[in-house]
Amino acid sequence: MKPKPYQLLIFDWDGTLIDSAAHIVACIHRVNAKVGLAPRTDAEIRNIIGLGLEEAFQHLFPQAQYALIQAAAHEYKQQFFLHNRKPSELFTGARETLEHLAEQGYWLAIATGKSRQGLNQVLAETQLTAFFPITRCADETFSKPHPRMLEEILVDYDLPASAALMIGDTEYDLQMAHNIKMDAAGVNYGVHGSERLLALAPRVCLDDIRELPIWLDNLAKS
């Protein structure tokens, strides 16, 4: 098997592998109305996708009391799991890309702002659970951009940061990797555009998830 530039590839979930932004935005609009928080624009909500639930609402409503933030986070879970629940679609080529990378011998993991319940459900719905033996969620460790998720994943795989690549669509993903001196790849089809991602100096900024194996192959040859 040809040499690989990294042993471990760590993926963000929302906006990187699955096209879930519209569903998340709609849920937060309903939550704000239900718990009495002021309306926020779609752009403002998209900006906080990738953070843990409480951190996301704290960013949207920095003056809100913590009890209200907790109520909003709880209501979001109700909205997401019980109401208007339509599974989001994987980005075109995401499944095939993961299959190809696994066949090439890469180890795969997920570091996400989702809750454990949320991630387990969407992994089951997309039938991708088997690809990711190690995952970390925002409700069981520190939220992005704190690097604890990555630190824990590296411990589980017994690897140094230099052996892993973080792939994500937000500056929170790239900052998290930067905080642990891990290489990162941005994808600009999610919630944060190229300009914001490039400001954090990723190794590459991809237009399509299907470009990742090609870039890794070229990196291995260089």
Name the helix and strand elements from N-terminus to C-terminus, one letter apiece. Answer: EEHHHHEHEHEHEHEHEH
- Please give the number of β-strands: 8
Count of helical regions: 10
Count structural domains: 2
Q: Roughly how many Å is the radius of gyration?
A: 17 Å
Uncertain segments are none
Distance between the termini: 16 Å
- Overall geometry comes to globular
Beta fraction of the residues? 5-15%
Please state the second-level CATH architecture of the largest domain: 3-Layer(aba) Sandwich
Quick check: average pLDDT? Answer: 93
| Widest sheet, order of strands | 5-4-1-6-7-8
- The CATH superfamily title of the largest domain: HAD superfamily/HAD-like
Largest sheet geometry: 6 strands, parallel
Question: How does the helix and strand content classify structurally?
Answer: alpha/beta
Protein name: Phosphoglycolate phosphatase
Organism: Thiothrix eikelboomii
GO cellular component, one term: cytosol
GO molecular function: phosphoglycolate phosphatase activity
